[in-house]
């Protein structure tokens, strides 16, 4: 499939042409151009402590004569590394081939339980239905923050579109078929014999060379529509094209509209909605969130968040405003930026459905509360700012509200309100009284309740421009104190 053919498809489906690019001269990683020693490549590319941990897991698997593979993103990223680059690892996916492991509970779970005995500090989470266990280290002195998922190879059968899959033990080859994209269906064998062997059953390496996202089968997005979000995420993150036939499969899924019931009922297919939230978080945390949302909108994939949700210019303006204002409002804004962007997106949805979606996504309780109350807060702030003429009265009004509420209100308000809240965050909220308690004491006033009242009045007069210097404040405070006596 060449770029001309892909361009024709995107034009036909009214997709943005900016996703068309020529990858023929893309500088490929050396790892894609040579037949590398994959075990050495892994050991050289990951942190030494992580590699030692992997070696211990490999030894445990070999003691049981189990075939252990590393699969998915870490293998993909390994082939995309530039020379002397390291992989920043937060998640490692390991699979035990069920053909070599007759464990009743699942070899992945059994292997994880064995490792838990060796590392008592690690958090072990077991998912029996999925034959999977997770080992999580959080800010560990040696390993940092890393999660290792160990799975018994399996197949997934979807009884109906968007359903939770039915799990059945199967060989590693069938396990790879359940993966989302060819570039994520690569596996490297970690145990002997044939240690370091690459399993590339679906030409994932070829698609890495072509810099394209491609699904494994036509029903992929019907089975799991969240894969559409993942396709867009990887396309934007890796600067890859989405393969033309894969685009058609996306349209087949979005036109099928199997997800409408989620806006009407609470707790429908919870694992699906949680994965939707995780993908939204990943997209909205990135600097390229706008490109991703625009592509999802063009695909019609925002339908899975809410049928009828349209990413129009006004919503994008509000989201850009939130993104900018976050820089001035809180030093920890990066931790919740994605959540506020999502709240802006959800705010355009009718209140009843908005609350149900927020509950299904398992958003924090304070987020659900904001989504329920933001219209009333917006009304109160807008009316107050228009009512008051003094800057101090306006600032005191805004001081009553949580900073996140102010950001959302500003984004959804007209220009004059936006501008004042912007001034509040960037300048007005940083202004303090020209005098403090020590100054009042040095002037000769005895400490007491009057201090707070006097300093508040001084601040108000400073905000209103009646006081410009400390000397003017010292003169003014005499009148204030006499009035308070």
Helix content: 40-55%
Structural category is: alpha+beta
Mean pLDDT: 86
Poorly predicted runs: 1-28
Query: So how many helices?
Result: 23
Strand content: 5-15%
Compute the separation of the termini in Å. Answer: 85 Å
Q: Describe the main β-sheet briefly.
A: 7 strands, mixed
What would you call the quaternary organization? single chain
Task: Spell out the CATH superfamily of the domain at 3-20 and 29-210.
Answer: Beta Polymerase, domain 2
Overall morphology: elongated
Strand order of the largest sheet: 3-4-5-2-1-8-9
InterPro entries: NT_sf (IPR043519), PolA_pol_head_dom (IPR002646), tRNA_nt/polyA_polymerase (IPR052390)
Pfam families: PolyA_pol (PF01743)
GO biological process, one term: tRNA processing
Family: Belongs to the tRNA nucleotidyltransferase/poly(A) polymerase family.
Any descriptors?
disordered N terminus, 485 residues, alpha+beta, magnesium, Beta Polymerase, domain 2, transferase
Topology readout:
Layout: H1 3-12, H2 30-33, H3 38-45, H4 48-63, E1 68-71, H5 73-80, E2 91-96, H6 107-118, E3 123-127, E4 132-140, E5 144-152, E6 154-157, E7 166-169, H7 172-177, E8 187-189, E9 198-199, H8 204-210, E10 212-213, H9 220-223, H10 226-238, E11 241-242, H11 244-256, H12 270-285, H13 289-299, H14 313-329, H15 337-347, H16 351-360, H17 365-387, H18 391-399, H19 403-412, H20 415-426, H21 437-443, H22 449-463, H23 470-484
Parallel strand pairs: 2-5, 10-11
Antiparallel strand pairs: 1-2, 1-8, 3-4, 4-5, 6-7, 8-9
Compact summary:
Residues 68-213 form the Poly A polymerase head domain. The chain is of the alpha+beta class.
């Amino acid at each position: 499939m060449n770029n001309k053919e892909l361009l024709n498809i995107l034009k036909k489906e009214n997709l943005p042409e900016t996703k068309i690019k020529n990858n023929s001269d893309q500088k490929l990683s050396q790892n894609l151009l040579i037949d590398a020693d994959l075990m050495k490549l892994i050991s050289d590319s990951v942190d030494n402590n992580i590699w030692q941990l992997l070696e211990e897991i490999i030894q445990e698997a070999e003691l049981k004569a189990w075939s252990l593979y590393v699969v998915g993103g870490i293998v993909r990223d390994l082939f995309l590394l530039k020379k002397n680059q390291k992989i920043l690892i937060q998640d490692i996916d390991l699979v035990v081939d069920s053909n070599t492991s007759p464990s009743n509970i699942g070899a992945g779970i059994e292997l994880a339980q064995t490792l838990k005995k060796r590392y008592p500090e690690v958090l072990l989470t077991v998912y029996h239905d999925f034959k999977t266990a997770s080992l999580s280290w959080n800010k560990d002195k040696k390993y940092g923050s890393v999660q290792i998922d160990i799975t018994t190879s399996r197949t997934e059968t979807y009884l109906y579109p968007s359903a939770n899959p039915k799990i059945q033990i199967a060989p590693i080859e069938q396990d790879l078929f359940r993966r989302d994209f060819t570039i994520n269906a690569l596996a490297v064998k970690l145990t002997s014999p044939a240690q370091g062997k690459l399993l590339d059953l679906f030409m994932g390496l070829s698609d890495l060379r072509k810099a394209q996202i491609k699904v494994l089968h036509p029903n992929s997005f019907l089975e799991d529509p969240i894969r559409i979000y993942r396709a867009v995420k990887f396309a934007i993150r890796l600067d890859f094209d989405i393969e033309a036939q894969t685009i058609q499969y996306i349209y087949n899924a979005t036109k099928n509209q199997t997800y409408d019931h989620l806006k009407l009922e609470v707790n429908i297919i919870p694992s699906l909605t949680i994965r939707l939230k995780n993908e939204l978080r990943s997209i909205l945390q990135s600097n390229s969130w706008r490109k991703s949302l625009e592509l999802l909108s063009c695909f019609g994939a925002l339908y899975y968040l809410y049928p009828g949700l349209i990413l129009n210019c006004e919503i994008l303006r509000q989201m850009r405003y939130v993104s900018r204002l976050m820089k001035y409002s809180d030093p920890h804004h990066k931790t919740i930026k994605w959540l506020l962007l999502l709240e802006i997106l959800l705010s355009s949805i009718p209140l009843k459905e908005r609350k149900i979606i927020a509950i299904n996504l398992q958003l924090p309780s304070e987020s659900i509360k904001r989504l329920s109350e933001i219209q009333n807060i917006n009304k109160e702030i807008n009316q107050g700012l228009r009512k008051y003429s003094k800057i101090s009265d306006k600032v005191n009004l805004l001081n009553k509200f949580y900073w996140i509420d102010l950001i959302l209100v500003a984004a959804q308000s007209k220009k004059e309100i936006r501008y004042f809240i912007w001034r509040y965050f960037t300048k007005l909220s940083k202004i303090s009284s020209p005098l403090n308690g020590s100054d009042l004491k040095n002037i000769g006033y005895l400490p007491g309740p009057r201090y707070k009242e006097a300093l508040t009045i001084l601040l108000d007069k400073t905000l209103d421009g009646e006081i410009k210097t400390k000397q003017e404040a010292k003169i003014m405070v005499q009148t204030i104190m006499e009035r308070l006596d």
